[in-house]
Structure formats: structure tokens, C-alpha cells
């Protein structure tokens, strides 16, 4: 969930702050990447642990949601990185 919420929260914080620009929101992209990869790894471990148990109470819902949120976080980080790259190209062309 951290991977999914961090980048939109940073963008929202820059929108309502007078001292920070939207470009500073890009500083959290590495945090989102690390959190997204961590969520995917933890979801994989949880799924493997669930397969090893005798009773399948959770049926993989939590691990599936962890993997989904991790992938969404990585997609948001990629989108943010692409937008920063486009911004850099436009600034350098000017």
C-alpha cells in the first residue's frame, strides 16, 4: 500500500505547498520503486508460505492484493519517471 500511496501523496503535498514545486514530487520515485519491489517479494513469500500450510484459510487474497498493489506502485513510479524525462527534454530543448 505504501508503494501505491506515496507518489500521489507527494504530488498532492506539492500542490498545496508554497515552498515546494511539482518537480520535487519526483524525489519519491526511488522510494516507490523500493516499496513496490518489496511488496511483490513479500507477496511471493506469503503465497509460498500459504502453499506450505495444511489449512488454506486465506486462499491467497492478501498475497494477491500485495502483488497487485506492488505492481501498481511500480507502474506509478514508471509513469513518474517518464514524466520527469519528458520534462527534462522539454526544458533542455527550450
In terms of topology, how is this protein built?
Layout: H1 2-15, H2 29-52, H3 61-93
Helix pairs in contact: 1-2, 1-3, 2-3
Notes on the protein architecture:
The protein has one domain (2-93). The chain has 3 helices and no strands. It has helices at residues 2-15, 29-52, 61-93. α1 (2-15) packs antiparallel against α2 (29-52), α1 (2-15) runs parallel beside α3 and α2 runs antiparallel to α3. It is elongated and about 60 Å long.
Q: What are its keywords?
A:
94 residues, mainly alpha, 3 helices, elongated
- Percent of residues in helices comes to over 70%
Low-confidence stretches: none
**Sheet of most strands:** none
Count of individual helical segments = 3
Listing every helix as H and every strand as E from the N terminus to the C terminus, the arrangement reads HHH
Mean pLDDT: 88
What share of the residues does DSSP label as strand, in percent?
under 5%
* 3D shape: elongated
End-to-end distance:
38 Å
Total tally of structural domains: 1
Radius of gyration: 17 Å
By secondary-structure content and strand pairing, the structural class works out as mainly alpha
Please count the beta strands (DSSP E, at least 2 residues each): 0
